[in-house]
Amino acid sequence: MAQVDLAYKITAADDAAADDAVDSAPVRRLAFYYRRLLGRGVGWIVPALTLTLWAVASRHEWVAPQILPAPAAVAQTLLEQIRSGDLFLNFGISLGRVAVGFTLGCVLGVVLGVSMGLSRRVEDYLSPIFNAISQVPVLGWLPLAMMVLGIGESLKFVIIAHASLVPVAINTLKGIRSVPRNYIEVAKAFQFSKRQLLRKVVFPATVPAIFVGLRYGLTQAWLSLVTVELLASSEGLGFMIVWGRQLFQLDLVLSAIIIVGVVGLLLDRGLARLERRLLRWQPVWDLTGGGT
C-alpha cells in the first residue's frame, strides 16, 4: 500500500511539474523577447539623447546656426543630395574604391599571414619589415604615396589595401599559431598527409580568426578611404565633407558625416551576419564591445 501511495505521489508531482513547465513556457518566451528587445534598445539611448540635445541647442541658438545647423536643416540637405543624385554618385565612387582596395588587401593579408604562420623561416625574413611597416599609420604613408603614385585612383587603392592588409595578416598568423595541439595529434593519429592536415584541420580552425581580421580590416579600410578622400580626391563621401567645409555649409558636412558613419556600421553588420551564417558553431564577436 505504501508503494502505491509513493508511486501516486511521484506521478502527481511529475504532472504538476509538467503543468508548471507548460504554463511557464510562454512566460519564458516573453521574457526572452523582452530581454532581446531591451538589449537592442539600449544602444539607441545615447544617439537619441544626442539628437535631442542637438535639437534643443539649435532651437535655442546656444551655438550659432552657421556653426551648428538644426537637425531639420541637415535632413533637408540630405534629401536634396538624394534628389539631385550627388549622394548616390559619391557613395558609389567611395564604395567602389573600398571594394577594390579591401579585396586586394585581404588577399595579400591572407597570403602573407598563411606564409608566416606555416613557415618559421618565412616569418623570420618578413616579420621585422612587416612589423616596422605596420607601425606607421596611414597618414604617415600618404605624402610619400602621393609623390610616387600621384592623386589618382591607384593612390586610394594602395592606401586602402595597406590599411586592411595589416589586421588581416596578423589575425591569420595568430589563427594558424593558435590551432589546438590536440587537433594536430588527432590528425596524426588518422595519418593525415600534410595537405589533408592543412585542408581539414588548420585552415578550418583558422577561419574564425581570419573573419576577425576581415571585420577589423574593413573598418580600417573605410576609415582610410575617408582620410584619403579628404586630402586627395575630387569625388566621394570624403570630398563631400571637404566641399561643404570650403563652402561653409556645415549642414552638408554633417550630412556626409552621418552617411559615412551609417555606411560603415552597415558594412560591419553585414560582414558579421555573413560570419554568423558561415560559422554557426562559433560565437560572433561584436567589435564595438561584447559578443553577439
Q: Major beta sheet, specifics?
A: none
Mean pLDDT: 80
Radius of gyration: 27 Å
Distance between the termini: 56 Å
Task: Please give the count of helices.
Answer: 11
Topology as H/E string? HHHHHHHHHHH
Oligomeric nature of the chains = single chain
Structural class: mainly alpha
Pick out the low-confidence regions. 6-10, 284-292
Beta strand %: under 5%
Helix content: over 70%
CATH class of the domain at 85-278: Mainly Alpha
The CATH superfamily of the domain at 85-278 is: MetI-like
Shape: globular
Report the CATH topology name of the domain at 85-278: MetI-like fold
Number-wise, the strands total: 0
CATH architecture designation of the domain at 85-278: Orthogonal Bundle
Keywords:
MetI-like fold, mainly alpha, single chain
Protein model, in words:
- The N and C termini lie far apart (56 Å).
- Helix content is 83%, strand content 0%.
- The radius of gyration is 27 Å and the shape is globular.
- It has eleven helices and no strands.
- It has a domain at 85-278: MetI-like fold, CATH 1.10.3720.10.
